[in-house]
Amino acid sequence: MLVESLGGGLLVGKARGGKFSNISSGEIRGWYFIGASFLVEFSAVYFASKGVKLVVDGIPFIHLLSYILLFFGLFMNLDKYPFWIITAGVLLNFIVIMANGGQMPISKEALISVGLLDNAAAIEQGRIITHTLINDATKLRFLSDILALPKYYPRPKVYSLGDIFMAAGVFIYVQHLMLGKGVNGQIGK
Asked: Over the chain, what HEC string results?
């Protein structure tokens, strides 16, 4: 959903008279923590797909490390209110992931409803280590990936309440940058 919120933010920002050049005025402190978080996550997925047992068995700890790095980066930007919204979404996802053994629970029915049958099968077979299918033992099911974009959407996906918060925060941040407003609602320099 972050790609959609970024793209939507750019389009709406332009439609509202914003300037793409204003985006360069946005400073994200600790961006290297955020980048390292994604690097840890994507590396884990890659090495798990190659059958590296240490990574497969260590996914709860890898997810924890990834989120710690991400929180460091986000906390360095909490002076900008859109980052409060993003952080709230990340926290919701973190809570449900940690409550369920280090994997995000996802609805098999939602995956099937948007045509992601291969993903459902891969998760069921343990080939996608970041997710687990929702079952009777799933905790905090309402925070899991249970929402699905309509089937006609060109990029089918299943998402969580936390993903909505993160997407909204990114969208708002892009709007403020493009319109030359400070992220605390004040006009920029």
From this structure: CHHHHHHHHHHHHHHCCCCHHHHHHCCCCCHHHHHHHHHHHHHHHHHHHCCCHHHHHCHHHHHHHHHHHHHHHHHCCCCCHHHHHHHHHHHHHHHHHHHCCCCEEECHHHHHHCCCHHHHHHHHCCCCCCEEECCCCCCCHHHCECEECCCCCCCCCEECHHHHHHHHHHHHHHHHHHCCECCCCCECC
Query: Which range, of 50-54, 58-62, 85-89, averages the lowest pLDDT?
Result: 50-54
CA distance 112 to 114: 5
For residues 16 and 175, is the Cβ–Cβ distance under 8 A? yes
What is the separation of C-alpha 23 from the centre of its chain, rounded to a whole number of angstroms?
21
- Kindly report the length of the chain: 189
Residue 185 reports pLDDT greater than 60:
no
pLDDT band for position 82 (cuts 50, 70, 90): very high
How far is residue 23 from each of residues 30, 124, 174, measured CA to CA in Å?
17, 41, 7
Residue 188: what residue type?
G
187 pLDDT exceeds 70?
Answer: no
